[in-house]
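Input/output pair, single chain:
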Amino acid sequence: MKRVLGWVCGVALALVGTFWFVTATADLALSAGIYGTAGTYRVERCYDTDLSGKNSEYDCHGSFTPDGGTAADAEYVRLESTGHDYPDGYEFDARQGIEPDTVQRVGFWGVVGELWQVAVCVVILAVLAYQAIKPRGQAARRESHRREPSRRQKVADRVGYAVVVALPVAVLSWIAMVAEPTP
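Output:
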């Protein structure tokens, strides 16, 4: 029963992690300028959506103007969970995605702001894969007496390397995102 529950929880976490990975990767690609319409986002106002006052979570309202466009071409866009309380009138380079309400900040800070999410997803999915691949029970005991690990253990170890690489990337990019200088 415990093993079945573990597999069910693992599959559920893998599905959530995969969905988060796909959406975070799309946002990262937009921030990196791989697709989308280049332009400028002008903040009209930002407000804290956390009413408890313990954790600040900012949403901003403003307009996105495509490069070469005029004020008449500007579209109203609401940015959710920006992570910063941008001052009114602040402008930054941005890209608008396929959907008109998808706008991401571009450049170093935009990429760093999305990179930590992708790295955390890689860590979660790699740990789940490692747990699913590594030998268990009798196979693990037999392997401890062998001189060379099995192919299955070698694959599990290689998946473990993804965690070793992705975890520092996640931590460092999250720290850089939090330490971003506010205007």
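The mean pLDDT is 85. Helices lie at 2-31, 108-133, 137-145, 151-178.
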